[in-house]
Amino acid sequence: MSVEAITITLVVITFIIYTAIGWWSRVRDTSSFYVAGQNVPTVANGAAIAADWMSAASFISMAGLVAFLGYDGTIYLMGWTGGYVLLALLLAPYLRKFGKFTVPDFIGDRFYSNGARAVAAIATIFISLTYISGQMRGVGIVFSRYLQVDIVVGVLIGMTIVGFFALLGGMKGVTWTQAVQYFVVIIAFLIPAFAISAQLTGNPVAQMSFITNDIVARLGEIQIDLGMTEYMAPFTNLSMLNVFMMTLALMAGTAGLPHVIVRFYTVKSVRAARWSAVWAIIFIGLLYLTAPAVGAFAKYNLIDTIADKPVEEVENIDWVSKWQTTGLLKFNDENGDGVVNYTAGDDNEVMIDGDIIVLSTPEVANLAPFIIALVAAGGLAAALSTASGLLITMTSAVSHDIYYRIFNKTASEAQRLRVGRITLFIALLVAAYVGISPPGFAGEVVALAFGLGAASLFPVILLGIFDKRMNKEGAIAGILTGLSFTLIMIGAILSESIIGTDGPILESFFGINAQGVGVIGMILNFIVSFIVSRMTEEPPQDIQELIENVRAPEIDEDSN
Amino acid sequence: MEQQKTLDERQRWYWRKNIRFILGLLAVWAIVAYGGAILFAEPLSNIQFFGVSLAFWIAQQGSILVFFSLILIYAIRMDRLDKEYARLLKNDKEG
Q: Residues in domain Sodium symporter small subunit (chain B) (predicted)?
């Protein structure tokens, strides 16, 4: 069988499984639709959190980003895992104890204000929408590269599958599908990693051979020989200040992403919320401990294969010619010496896109066609699982927080479920549209999602739990300050691609770039909400009781 | 059962303990991630850890293992605290 045939078979099999799960977990009440009836087992929820979290970016792009950033790639490795410490210790248990459906639910109730609820709902929709465009794009790329179908067709097929299990099963269907998708993702990531590690170091456990073997040191030497930066030395690509700020923005942003937070509402107790976080970091950590190894090994292999080799020899390598046609790998012999010159200077003749690091690994390492098919299925699972979680989150913000809690408080269960499904369908169409024709600044927009999460939702939820004196006025002033500061700064620093000015309006905010500036927004949010709350009236008695109740230990009937 | 107006003495004890756990664990989180991998990256780069430098290992793998340990320790400690609280509550009722 050809690679394409195997890939199609594998993708169809996994899609049938996802669809079957959607049918099996179809729901009829809003509690199941939004929070899966709050009885998802801890381990399954941990796997669902991991699949929800690990997007097309984690699966396809991250190892490549790390490979090209070297030491400074830590911003993604620490930034996208360290946020779980904040979630597990500071947010998840209390939000579960609060026991409602959504993030705007908590913010609206805690700050006794529909204004705060609406702001939180709009922030939720905006953050989720920016995120989902990247996922749909990922689906389209995998379809077009591995199955030779048009990106538009690929996006439409992906949408249909996601729509089927999300419309039918709501959060319950999404949760169980994600749990299965996690295992597809991690197997697809680990098998090529083990194979390339065994080939280069003789030890298949990539996470270990990464430090026990001298590949990383040799990669550093090769890079220096080629005139590039030393791989293991810190702050060669980003300043220390930016590494600090970007890591913090990604961590706080992770803890402020509504589609991640809401996963902790789906378990049955506070204790289960804490243990879900443990399982989530185990499942996520498995990929994140492997990614730096994949990045370094693949880069070493790639440089070793093409640098300073005769052009003719390189062009005859099968995977080189395949990737050349995608435009993600380019080289031409500019000085005509018949050798591929790969350097950091002007005489460089090679352009490698970071996205091919993971996707090309099975081919570079000469793995069986089945593995290549598996990586395609894994990329699809990563993109679809994240997209489905985002869809449910957007849907609940519209149909639950805005329609039911603000406009129609007397809506019946059936009405709310119907509005939920209609909203989901519309969200699906919007996502398909942005997937097919993404805005030109899609990459920058992700920085925005994290920056806004860090500067708006994270501080407000945190203060809502830990500062009893925090009131409506403080919270709203804080969110608006954090949001507007971060929006304006990111807009100004990235104005070239967002508004289309000639060159950025602002180079950086005192040396902090767009991805790190959310931290300043977060600090401003904390300061403003503190000052405003202390100058205005304290929250009413019933809100103070709500906070006490969220903090109080949960008495466990079945002691489990 | 009617909702209590404020936390009783036992619940306040539970909350204080919880806050102390959180602060301790977050201190480790900050020291490892922002100290070990960023602020002290230059000096720690001179220390060898197997085939790589210590700073590099913390930045790319070690910190993630620490994050996992912190979340695990918190879950275990809070389980114990829950049990302790339930025991005290039972004592209060009996005695």
A: 12-85
